[in-house]
Amino acid sequence: MSVPTNRNTFSSLAARRRGVLSLAVHRVWAWVRETGAVTAQHPGRLRFRRIGPGTRLAFPQGTVFGEPWIELGNHCVIGEQVTLTAGLMPDLDLGRETVLTLGDGVVLGRGSHVIADTTVTIGSDTYCGPYVYITSTNHSYDDPHQPVGRQWPRMEPVVIGPGCWIGTGAVILPGARLGRNVVVAAGAVVRGEVPDHAVVAGAPARVVRSWTSDRGWQPPLRTPAPVPIPEGVTPEQLLLLAELEPDAPEAGRSER
């Protein structure tokens, strides 16, 4: 006599087993990410010249070398797979001065690269989206008879002012000097000097909007400025406000 097979029972057991394994994997990965993060209290193998309090390099880190010549300010957020390098290659003596400096509150998005073969300075509260590339080195191609990769590169310092926003996939080339509160559009390729309070876009990047105290934004902004949150409003009140339906006031008026 054959015993009928209940496929639903086996499917339920398999689904439950998969759910348990999935939960275990996520918990282990969360533990690995937390344990592998680099902070001032837990630098791991990395020995930066300075890493400020509140600064965190997410795990897994990208390529990091030359850290004795790298200074990270306070409360910086370094995303996963971010490359930070000082010098052309590891184990070089770069002298007494800092080569790569991040100010306080700098954010580097996932997969970004900061390559500092000569000095690179990123001002405080500058935010970079994912996959931003900042470099002080460029390939040279002066000799048409030699492979480009074998010719000695050119190096120029890079300075990014405080309060900038650098969009996803932007490239900051050697010699670039960005002023205060500069906006770099996604995918832009920036070289040369950019004044304070400018918006640049394109490859090569050019100024597409700028601000001055006497004229404001030129060309004028196409969207209204965001309304600031009034003082004293709590997060709970904001959540309640977000749950209100947009047509609630109109419905109330129609009932009157």
TrEMBL record:
The lineage of its organism: Bacteria, Bacillati, Actinomycetota, Actinomycetes, Kitasatosporales. This is Sugar acetyltransferase. The keyword Transferase applies. GO terms for cellular component: cytosol. The keyword Repeat applies. Belongs to the transferase hexapeptide repeat family. It comes from Streptomyces fulvorobeus. Keywords: Repeat, Transferase. One of its GO terms (molecular function) is O-acyltransferase activity. InterPro entries: Hexapep, Hexapep_transf_CS, Hexapeptide_acetyltransf, Trimer_LpxA-like_sf.
